[in-house]
Structure formats: structure tokens, C-alpha cells
Design a protein that fits this description.
- The protein is an alpha/beta fold and about 300 residues long.
- The chain has three domains: about 80 residues, Arc Repressor Mutant, subunit A, CATH 1.10.10.10; about 120 residues, 3-Layer(aba) Sandwich (D-Maltodextrin-Binding Protein, domain 2), CATH 3.40.190; about 90 residues, Periplasmic binding protein-like II (D-Maltodextrin-Binding Protein, domain 2, 3-Layer(aba) Sandwich).
- The strands form four sheets. Strands 4-3-5-14-6 form a five-stranded mixed β-sheet, sandwiched between helices.
- Strand 9 and strand 10 form a beta hairpin.
- The radius of gyration is 20 Å and the shape is globular.
- Pfam families: HTH_1, LysR_substrate.
- This is Probable hydrogen peroxide-inducible genes activator.
- Required for the induction the katG gene for catalase. Involved in the response to hydrogen peroxide.
- Keywords: Activator, DNA-binding, Transcription, Transcription regulation.
Length: about 300
């Protein structure tokens, strides 16, 4: 009889997060047949189907949802065990500079820095916020040890070949709506539900993600144009429209605002990457590990 394995749990969780076997294979660096074998072994172990194939991707069955929920706790506990063991001999010290694009500074970076202060108390992490071109320049010049940038649809295609790249988050854009809005509490909606809504739009710094209406909508209704996140979300909270919010920042919205995930087959999404020099220090490696763990936790909550 097959056993439940950590690899199997990891694969099932990734499929649930990404929505397909092929996307999970890309994210984990596996072949698609290897993903299918892991799922088959897990289904044999629990005695139920975990995923149902659909026209686009897969859906999670009730048994699959139970497995994914336990996977989050089990894998988190295993990561915690490794951290505790590593901390017994931890000698990391020094200063690591981390630069990040604005949306990631709302939740991801602060939580990762807090995690590092516990796991590696001798390591001083200095975060800074900047536009992506500035982050890349500072990483090349040595002023930064780690840079966190956004990549994906409708963003500049930067040449990153000189850097080591670590995928942090494959979450997508969310939509922020005011409390009491017809989509409030929906959790997940079809993109067609956004037609006719009034949008609060703005722009990030040069080279950073631009935040207009939902990217695939035609002729959206623009109600207000403002630059900063507090102003955009304040207008949403006042009931004057809805706005885009990166998944990484979804948990930072103020009272009076909730977020919904949008299903849109025409939108390929965005991702957050951590970049370092290819010859990476132990301190920078620890920062990247904390970023990946924190992003993983945020993505599980969002999904």
C-alpha cells in the first residue's frame, strides 16, 4: 500500500495553488509525468481522487481539499523542525540589504524580516523600497544583496541572466471592493462580474507594475486617478469604486475593504522574484529562504 509522502503533499499543495498539473510542474521544477505519478501515489494512499480534470486545469475534490489543508500544516511543521535544528548551530551575523518593489513592502518584506529576527538574531536585515530599475542598478553595484521584483504580463522584460533568480510568489492580481459591495464576500469571481464597475486607478513608480482597471477589460469606467495605495484604498473604502491589488498586498487592505480573486483565462498573471548575485552569501541565502517561506504562507492563505 502506498504511503503519504512529503513530496506528494508538496505536489498536491502546488497543484491546488497553481490550478493545473503543468503549472505545478513548472513551479516545482518537475516533469509533468512526475507530477502525475506523485498524485497517483497520493490517491492510492488515501483511497480517493484528489483532483478532477476540467477544460482549463483541474479542480480540487473534497478529499483533495482535506489533503491540501493538512499539507500546509505538515510541511510548515517540517520547515519549522529544520529551522530549529539549523538554529542550534546558527552563526549567521552581519548586515544584509534588501530592496523591494512597493507592493511587496506591505506584507511580504516586513513578515520575512520579522521571521529572520527570530531565526537568525545575529543577522541585521535592512529593507528599502524602490522601483525595479533602481533595484537592479543597486544589485549590480553591490548596494543591495537581495532584490525583490515583479515580473509577468504587461511588465517590462528585464535581462536577468546575470542574477540568481528565486520564484517567490505566483499569486495574481486581486480586486479590492468596499464592504457591502455586491462582490464583498464572494471570494472568487469570474472576470465578467467586473464589467460595468467603476475603477480607481493609478500608476506605480517608473518600471514598477501599473495599476489601472482589470487588464483584459475593454473600455472600463474610470472614476478616479490617484497615485498612492492609501489614497486608492481610501476611495474604495468610501464606496467610490474598486481597484486592483497585488496578491502579495491583499492582506494589508484597510477596514472597510475586502479583496476577491478573479478567474480570467486571458490573463497569464504576474510573479514576484528574489534576485541575488550568482555568488550568494550565507546571509543573503537566509533572506531568500525567509522570503520564500513567507510568500508560501501568504499564498496558502490567499488561495
Amino acid at each position: 500500500m502506498a504511503d503519504v509522502t512529503l513530496d506528494g503533499l508538496r505536489v498536491c499543495r502546488e497543484i491546488a495553488l497553481t490550478g493545473s498539473f503543468s503549472a505545478a510542474a513548472r513551479s516545482l521544477g518537475y516533469s509533468q509525468p512526475a507530477i502525475s505519478r506523485q498524485v497517483a501515489a497520493m490517491e492510492a494512499a488515501v483511497g480517493y481522487r484528489l483532483f478532477a480534470r476540467e477544460v482549463r486545469g483541474v479542480s480540487v475534490t473534497p478529499a483533495g481539499a482535506a489533503v491540501v489543508a493538512h499539507a500546509a500544516r505538515i510541511l510548515g511543521a517540517v520547515s519549522g523542525l529544520h529551522r530549529e535544528i539549523d538554529a542550534l548551530g546558527d552563526r549567521l551575523a552581519g548586515r544584509v540589504t534588501v530592496g523591494a518593489f512597493p507592493a511587496s513592502m506591505a506584507v511580504l518584506i516586513p513578515r520575512a524580516v520579522a521571521r529572520l529576527s527570530t531565526e537568525h538574531p545575529g543577522l541585521v536585515v535592512a529593507p528599502t523600497e524602490a522601483a525595479t530599475p533602481t533595484l537592479l542598478h543597486d544589485l549590480r553595484s553591490g548596494r543591495l544583496h537581495v532584490a525583490v521584483i515583479a515580473t509577468g504580463q504587461e511588465l517590462p522584460d528585464y535581462d536577468l541572466d546575470e542574477f540568481a533568480r528565486y520564484r517567490l510568489h505566483s499569486g495574481d492580481l486581486c480586486v479590492a471592493v468596499p464592504t457591502g459591495h455586491r462582490l464583498d464576500g464572494a471570494g472568487r469571481v469570474d472576470v465578467r462580474e467586473l464589467i460595468g464597475e467603476t475603477w480607481i486607478v493609478g500608476a506605480g513608480s517608473a518600471g514598477d507594475p501599473q495599476f489601472g482597471a482589470w487588464p483584459t477589460l475593454t473600455d472600463p469606467v474610470i472614476g478616479h486617478r490617484v497615485t498612492g495605495w492609501p489614497a486608492r484604498l481610501g476611495l474604495v473604502a468610501a464606496g467610490l469604486g474598486i481597484c486592483l491589488v497585488p496578491g502579495l498586498a491583499a492582506r494589508s487592505v484597510p477596514r472597510g475593504v475586502t479583496t476577491v480573486i478573479v478567474d480570467d483565462p486571458s490573463w497569464s498573471g504576474r510573479a514576484a522574484l528574489a534576485l541575488t548575485e550568482k555568488s550568494v552569501s550565507d546571509g543573503a541565502r537566509a533572506v531568500v529562504a525567509a522570503l520564500r517561506t513567507t510568500a508560501e504562507e501568504l499564498q496558502l492563505v490567499q488561495g
